[in-house]
Amino acid sequence: MWRLALRTLKFRRTSFVATFLAMFLGAAIVIGCGGLMETGVRMAAEPQRLGGAPVVVTGEQTYDSTALTERHRIAPGLVGEVARVRGVRAAVGDVSVPATVLKDGKPVTGESASYGHGWASARLTPYTLAAGKTPVAGGEAVLDADLARRAGARPGSSVDIVVQGTVRRFLVSGIAEQRGDHNPDAAVFFTDDEARTLAGGRIDSIGVLPAPGARVAAVADAVRAEVGDRAEVLTGERRGLAELPGTLSSKRTVVILAAVFGSSVVLIVMFGVASTLGLSLQQRAREMALLRAVGSTPHQLRRMILTETAVLSVGSVLLALLPGYAIGRLLFGVLTASGVVSPAIVYHAGWMPMAVGAVVTVLAAAGATRFAGRRAARTEPVAALAESTAGTRWFSVPRLLLALFFLANGIGLAVATATVMEDGPTLASTAGPASVLFCIGLALLAPGITKAMVALLRLPVRALSGLSGQLALRNAATANVRMAGAVAPIVLLIGIATGTLYMQSTEDHVSRTSYDRNILADYVLDSTTGGFAPGVVDRVRATPGVAAASEFVTSRGFVDRAGGPDQVDLRGVSADGVRQSLDLPVVAGSLTGLRGDTVALSDKKAREYGVKVGERLPMHLGDGTAVRPTVVALYADNPKQEYLTLPAATLAPHTGDGLPHQILVRTARGGGADVHARLAALAAQVPGTELDDSSSLAGRNNQIQQILVSANYTIVAMIVGYAAITVVNTLVSVTRKRRAEFGLQRLTGATRAQVLGMLTVEGLLIGVVATVLGTVASATTIVPYSLVKSDSYLPSGSIGIYLAIVGGSLLLVFGATLLPSWRGMRSPAVETVKAA
């Protein structure tokens, strides 16, 4: 059987090219998604500034199994406890606080960050003193060599450094140089006491240096036993997570993204392989019948087909390993570029995603082979004498049941999206696959649907296209299975592309417009030096022409309730300016009470949490700190901007830099250019401050929803590209197989123009049928998603998106049929028929 299968592959190489490409590209994409999945599951980062510490102790970055978005700091007393653990040579506490060195009043690091640390932690990178001396008193600092070069500083000189939002002058006591191949951010070193004071008295991490001869694993276990659940102990490549607070919050996003698109790709690969393999077997109907006529059994034919597929799938998987790794790297690069994942996270694609991708592809091919080869293996010997009837039967009970399974699941996901799922980051995980499943269900029923739609189009086609149309209609009637084979992959292409692109355009529109309505401010001041000192907002309010100003802080936290914590968006504002800066229609209480330990929330959220004005709301902030603020106001619910509002002075200390990064400014009526000029002058006086209009905040809003834009487009482009290649393979294969048919038509009097006209009409029929079915399939994604997002059945976005998708699909159809046909008809008709 192996010999027969290999000989079949050898002498029918052209027939198997489409199947091979479908497997190869599918395996590459599945392997790429597998690498992304492994990266998300492992979520590791090589240490930079802590690279010299084999063991790192840091705050637990989860609350109730959910990742925190801010750094959870630890008590400084833990340093002494860790230092006394057996096998520990030294334990060094580390803090990181924004510290921006200025030159001529401007940050020397541009848009990149620089941080201040205690000098004792310099050994953790390690840094060594290259010139000068260590800082021993307040007001002294050591700069790393690169920072000193850019600032023009040297030992004994003075530099201005922004710390805690305030410009302070420091004496440069020394210059430090880094040893090793790490690449930490620009560093400033203060005395240990001053660094800890700037950090609020707590520390970020503890670098553990084992004693000589002590095993790192044993030391880590001993430290872990000592600290218990008060901190987390990291070793190996996970140490870098201590330098990236909030990174674990992206783990769920990456895993969901890889799982959703990976599963969709598996389904599409199965469909693509089944489609191309089924077409190949259909074209070999006469060969199968002859094999049955000479004594082959259905079991032998199934074994031969399975062996052929095994050879193709194994070969395609082996060739796809390297491209699959490259695709995974590409997807990971898109995620890091769009801010979903920190660039410091290590991309992992070991043997596991390779093996999973290989196994999934082989199993998908085997399943598709069993489905597509079932009817071919049952071909009766007499069919060899009735070749004209081959390919007209398509209906079977298993095919119907499978189609109903996919259609029902597609509809089920659409209903779940519209009625069950809330407007949140996982909404796309149900809306997106709905169109994929529905597309596959329609493709399985495509022969019957195509036949019915061609019958409906018969009269207009005859009236508009003459003889060419009649020939095309006759071909469609007698070879509806062949035409459906061309329709199916185009349905997939149009359905997936239309559904996903309009889903994203709707998301973009709703996010942008809802945020614009919520923000009443005219301008926003942005700090690039770690945040604004408390007095800056007062200076803004005192500026002539300014009606109100409010500090603005963003974070994520948790509301504690009986069913488990509810993760929510948090906003920090100033009570004196919030009413003029944000659209929060108050229905109970007053926003002027937002001071100290208080909170305001929507009336819907208040009912959900069972609280009223004057009652306390148990919460955990983004760094895991437990609080019980008093509810002072309820405002009308905005489904697109559901967040809790706290005083900026309360929320900011529990964020990474500890200060507000934005100030919202509402100008008085008629202020105009004068106010802008005054605000610009004020921004110039506060180092690292940028002035922009309030629309600039829209691009940063709703990050949980928006960070996947680039990744969505990239992965959809891959899937659509795969579907497009399947379309081209299918149509080219069909067209090449019909060369004898074209030759006979020419021998009976048809001209090249008439044959090409017939193919043009067939292409239009294929395009119309596929467009209708693809549009119906895309509606299972677009309609429920739009209902949840914008309370509309229609998506947001230009009609040009749809026209471009349909137009591109028609170009593929005509290019894959007319070009091979035109080239094939350059040979004499007699030779074409003889060659067949």
UniProtKB/TrEMBL annotation:
Q: Name one GO biological process term.
A: lipoprotein localization to outer membrane
Gene Ontology cellular component terms for the protein in this record: plasma membrane protein complex
**Subcellular location(s) of the protein:** Cell membrane
Please name the Pfam families in this protein's record.
FtsX
Transmembrane spans: 254-279, 310-332, 344-368, 400-421, 433-459, 480-503, 713-734, 755-779, 799-819
How does the record classify its membrane topology?
A: Multi-pass membrane protein
- Annotated ABC3 transporter permease C-terminal domain residues: 260-381, 714-827
Q: Which family does it belong to?
A: Belongs to the ABC-4 integral membrane protein family. LolC/E subfamily.
Descriptive protein name: ABC transporter permease
